[in-house]
Write a structure and sequence with these properties.
By secondary structure, the protein is mainly alpha-helical. 74% of the residues lie in helices and 0% in strands. The chain has a domain of 39 residues. It contains one helix and no strands. The N and C termini lie far apart (81 Å).
Length: 84
């Protein structure tokens, strides 16, 4: 395994500065990645909720149509007259 040679004493200040800069950049990238993740998760939840809302509305409309049809024919949901 290759290891870098120990820095000379006149380079330690530069190395410390570089290390601090790299750490700050890593923290910035991490925060950005977390924001991107939650932005994507929020969008996915919103899309799923919208789809669930559309599905619920369609189900309600079908149930209402079915109930109207049953009321017009005098049948209830439980006694359709088929096989009972």
């Amino acid at each position: 395994m290759y290891t870098q040679p120990a820095p000379r004493p006149d380079q330690t200040g530069q190395m410390d500065d570089w290390h601090d800069l790299v750490q700050r950049r890593a923290h910035e990238l991490r925060r950005e990645a977390i924001r991107d993740f939650w932005r994507g998760a929020d969008a996915m939840v919103a899309a799923t909720a919208a789809q669930a809302g559309r599905s619920a509305r369609r189900l309600a409309q079908r149930l209402a149509r079915h109930t109207r049809g049953q009321a017009e024919s005098g049948e209830s949901l439980c006694t359709s007259g088929k096989g009972v």
